[in-house]
Amino acid sequence: TMAELLGQPLLKVWQDLCSAIDEKYDPDKHIIEAEENMKVVCKCFLDGGMMSEQAAEQMNVPMKFINVCMR
Prior knowledge:
alpha+beta
């Protein structure tokens, strides 16, 4: 079955989408958060024409992370 989201997906500060999933789907009754992979978010910015320095600033990550994503 499809999990029930608790509200709309949120755009986090570092620009990835996050969704909270109802605790009834976790045997320990925790709320589960599912987020986009940060490398995927970075590649999306870079593939969209954003300069690496802009992506680092937009995502609030060091250039070292951006350089790893560019490989």
